Amino acid sequence: MNMKTVLILLVLALATIFALVCVLLTRGRAPSTCQHQPPEQEDPDDGQSLVFADLTPEELAQVVRYLQGNLGVQLVDASRAKPSDNCIASVDVQVPAKAEVLRFLDGGGARPRREALAVLYFGNQPDPNVTEYVVGPLPTPVYHRDVTVQKYGGKVPYHRRPVTGKEYVDINALIQRELRKAPHFLAACCESDGTDLAILTTAPRGFKSGDRVTWFVLFHSVAGTGYYLSPVGLEVLVEHGDLHVSRWRLRKVFYNDQYFASTVELEDAFESNLLEVVRIEKPQAEAVLGSMRPRRPPGSPGPLHYEPQGPRYSVRNNLVLFQAWSFAFGMSVNTGLRLFDIRHKGERVAYEISVQEALSVYGSNCPGGMSTRYFDGSFGIGRFAYELVRGLDCPYTATYVDRHYLVESETPKTNQNSLCIFEHDAALPLRRHFSDSHSLYYGGLRKNTLVIRAVSTLINYDYIWDFMFHGSGAVEVRVHATGYISSSFLHGRGTDYGNRVGPHTLGTMHLHHIHYKVDLDVDGQLNSLETQDMEYELVKDPWSMQHTIERPYLRRERLEREGEAAFLLNTPMPRYLSFAGSKPNKWGHPRSYRVQIVSFAGEHLPPSSPMERSISWGRYQLAVTRRKEEEPTSTSVYNQNDPWTPTVAFADFIDNETITNEDLVAWITVGFLHVPHAEDVPNTVTVGNGVGFFLRPYNYFDEDPSVDSPDSIYFSGEQDAGACGANPLACLPPAAACAPHLPPFRYGGFLNL
């Protein structure tokens, strides 16, 4: 071997060693690229957000023990209580008065007492009623005070109470007893003896105050699928207002456009050939209408959402921190997800944003469908927010939070992982520009938002509740509807009220209207309401006086009273409507936040309806009122079962008080009309079925606050855009190697049912 060959081999060996060293060094640096980077955020005063926190299981249990030992009456567990018993219906946190909270948060005042609100049904009394107590202080209560009269002006009549699970069980038993009286009819119509039929409630329950008479719709029930699309055509009217279950009665039976006094009369009509029967085969699991079972084997996995260096937000107790944002969160058993003390760069933008009610109004030519107006708060928007499915309801790597509640039980329950928080890449620029003249450059910023989400399953429908925080300083609130449509048995002129979606199934038209409370505090607690819109003015051209031009101009107005700020549903409203503070920004304009509504609402119930006042919030797409501690919510859970004499009537909030330089609340209605169609089977899809609103800064800042985002991108034509130092996007390939450690998939959402 000559010297030249030796030198060549030596050079190759050195090159190989160098390459290996580079690889090893690169691998050695990889962990630092993938290492979790905690978010860079200032730590606010420790524990202040807990003033809004939901009750813990220990606190709930303490309240129950206190009530059992200090009310002087026998309490029966609500899960087995008869209407003639006394029981604890629910316990939730009593949020302190705003003035007291602000003294604590902003003025160095004492921490407000922690208290609970307990709702009790007193059926074992000469005057049965619903009573609400504030119990405190927690964690060791020593007092309770009756706040029912203070809140509602009098005792709450007993017939207004929501229907309990035990009451539904007893109603079901009554219906089953009555069905046994029509065996031949059931065998002919439905291939059933009645025991395999599902029973769906309607609401409200009657025609006047004091009624407790409910239509129940019967469906074929098949395990593993929704029964809501399989009506058998039979509906029954049950009177269940008496304190003694033995006195409840079946008042009316409906089948195929005929009404009967009883199931015995129905059976007699069938036996006498006086009844036209539509024979419906019992559906099989593999072919039932509305089955959600997969029809194809799994394919390759779709895109995966993950953070290469861990979450850029933090969750501490009930406090969320994300970039410039911070807020506290909670979950009311009745109204669901709610946020408090929303701040941007430490400055409060809103004191409260919360769901108030979800309303559904149905049409049909069957009695159950045509009489249905569901007020979902009375069923429990927060109570029925069950565990979220990791990787579908929320990103797999989202942060999941358990929620605790006490309803119709003496024992607290937990809906684990029922709230999720995650950062969302919308795959859309928040802002961008490509410059192709004068100088060549590109600048932009990805639209990343922080999302807090819960999903409520309210009988057939699933509502997805989102609160979203943008880098531009905007807050977005939206709700999507999915789940099963409700249906009626198709007969007669049924398609006047919807579309046929199955052999005997009418998808019944209905509207979804959602109400929100938004307590904005823009640059302080005292705000005014300003509107801006456009008009055209015809003017002569200054440079050519023989010609004219239509020039748009801005019409500005400050609204002075509540009556001016109550905008009826589906009527024109100023395109720009803002809550304005008293101080100007750098450019001399009032610091403001704009309310921008995205909605396709149906028509509100006519004012002539005897139950319209109970949902009078639905008259308005937006109403702005002075904030009052005695007007905390726009409705009441007691309105559902007595809409004719509502416990809370929102229309009374609008009494034309001045709204200039006051603490104001925006009450916002969003919604859509839904005419079910074939593509709503098996489920309504979220596409096109989302509504909500934005709270957008309007001269609140001196420039777009997202300019401070570390995610901003800028490079010029003279730079190497592929260099990591010049362009953070060029750093993504190494970061993409930071595959997340995914926790094992587990689901316990069926445990508490």
Automatic annotation (TrEMBL):
<dbReference type="Pfam" id="PF01179">
    <property type="entry name" value="Cu_amine_oxid"/>
</dbReference>
<dbReference type="InterPro" id="IPR049947">
    <property type="entry name" value="Cu_Am_Ox_Cu-bd"/>
</dbReference>
<dbReference type="GO" id="GO:0009308">
    <property type="term" value="P:amine metabolic process"/>
</dbReference>
<feature type="domain" description="Copper amine oxidase N2-terminal">
    <location>
        <begin position="62"/>
        <end position="143"/>
    </location>
</feature>
<feature type="active site" description="Schiff-base intermediate with substrate; via topaquinone">
    <location>
        <position position="461"/>
    </location>
</feature>
<feature type="domain" description="Copper amine oxidase N3-terminal">
    <location>
        <begin position="161"/>
        <end position="256"/>
    </location>
</feature>
<feature type="active site" description="Proton acceptor">
    <location>
        <position position="376"/>
    </location>
</feature>
<keyword id="KW-0801">TPQ</keyword>
<comment type="similarity">
    <text>Belongs to the copper/topaquinone oxidase family.</text>
</comment>
<dbReference type="Pfam" id="PF02727">
    <property type="entry name" value="Cu_amine_oxidN2"/>
</dbReference>
<dbReference type="GO" id="GO:0005886">
    <property type="term" value="C:plasma membrane"/>
</dbReference>
<feature type="domain" description="Copper amine oxidase catalytic">
    <location>
        <begin position="306"/>
        <end position="706"/>
    </location>
</feature>
<dbReference type="InterPro" id="IPR049948">
    <property type="entry name" value="Cu_Am_ox_TPQ-bd"/>
</dbReference>
<dbReference type="GO" id="GO:0008131">
    <property type="term" value="F:primary methylamine oxidase activity"/>
</dbReference>
<dbReference type="Pfam" id="PF02728">
    <property type="entry name" value="Cu_amine_oxidN3"/>
</dbReference>
<dbReference type="GO" id="GO:0005507">
    <property type="term" value="F:copper ion binding"/>
</dbReference>
<dbReference type="GO" id="GO:0048038">
    <property type="term" value="F:quinone binding"/>
</dbReference>
<dbReference type="InterPro" id="IPR015802">
    <property type="entry name" value="Cu_amine_oxidase_N3"/>
</dbReference>
<protein>
    <recommendedName>
        <fullName>Amine oxidase</fullName>
        <ecNumber>1.4.3.-</ecNumber>
    </recommendedName>
</protein>
<dbReference type="InterPro" id="IPR016182">
    <property type="entry name" value="Cu_amine_oxidase_N-reg"/>
</dbReference>
<keyword id="KW-0732">Signal</keyword>
<feature type="modified residue" description="2',4',5'-topaquinone">
    <location>
        <position position="461"/>
    </location>
</feature>
<keyword id="KW-0186">Copper</keyword>
<dbReference type="InterPro" id="IPR015798">
    <property type="entry name" value="Cu_amine_oxidase_C"/>
</dbReference>
<keyword id="KW-0479">Metal-binding</keyword>
<dbReference type="InterPro" id="IPR015800">
    <property type="entry name" value="Cu_amine_oxidase_N2"/>
</dbReference>
<keyword id="KW-0560">Oxidoreductase</keyword>
<dbReference type="InterPro" id="IPR036460">
    <property type="entry name" value="Cu_amine_oxidase_C_sf"/>
</dbReference>
<feature type="signal peptide">
    <location>
        <begin position="1"/>
        <end position="19"/>
    </location>
</feature>
<dbReference type="InterPro" id="IPR000269">
    <property type="entry name" value="Cu_amine_oxidase"/>
</dbReference>
